[in-house]
Amino acid sequence: MGLYESIGMDGGRLEEQTDGPGRFKLYRMVLNRDDVSIMRESWGIVLALALGVGCVAPRPPLSVKDPDPSIKIPAMKVAVEKKDLAAACQMVRDLESDDPAVRLYAIEALFRLTGERFGYLFYADDDQREAAVKQWRHWAAQQGCEGFEPPATGPAGGGEKTP
Fold first, then answer.
1. Pairing between β-strand 3-9 and β-strand 12-18 as defined by DSSP bridges
2. pTM of this prediction?
3. For the residues 146-159, what does the mean pLDDT come to?
4. 162 — pLDDT class (breaks 50, 70, 90)
5. Per-residue pLDDT at 76 exceeds 80
6. Buried b or exposed e, range 33-45, using 16+ CB within 10 angstroms
7. Does the pLDDT value for residue 38 go beyond 90?
8. 3-state secondary structure 34-78
9. ∠ CA 156-147-95, rounded to 5°
10. Nearest-angstrom CA–CA distance, 12 and 95
């Protein structure tokens, strides 16, 4: 075997090994004790982060009926992309949500599915939204959505038409 020569470096030393003239030189890095402990700590941190990211609860399937807005809102977007009018029934219910973000996404999704707004403003208070919600409920009843009753008609059988 050849001879090792040490070349000083910050944080350790590089050793060079030769087997004689014109032969290949081999190099190896010899680290100080402090460098090894730093590397171990670094790998420990990387490993902890990698395992921590993998420990997230699985996300339930997207559904417009889910009470969690982080599930409901993406489901509304998917329903619009798929032009799923069956999901519109739940979106009409969501127009009365306490969460303004849910109301915003519900009216935007309904508008993109139907082209209608009926004057609905998601940021208005309950009283100001009431007339528009009635029109949306009437629309839902016409679509055959469960839980929405068609408005009562007068004695002549001619109910009010909504724009």
1. antiparallel
2. 0.60
3. 63
4. very low
5. yes
6. eeeeeeeeeeeee
7. no
8. HHHHHHHHHHHHHHHHHHHHCCCCCCCCCCCCCCCHHHHHHHHHH
9. 100
10. 67
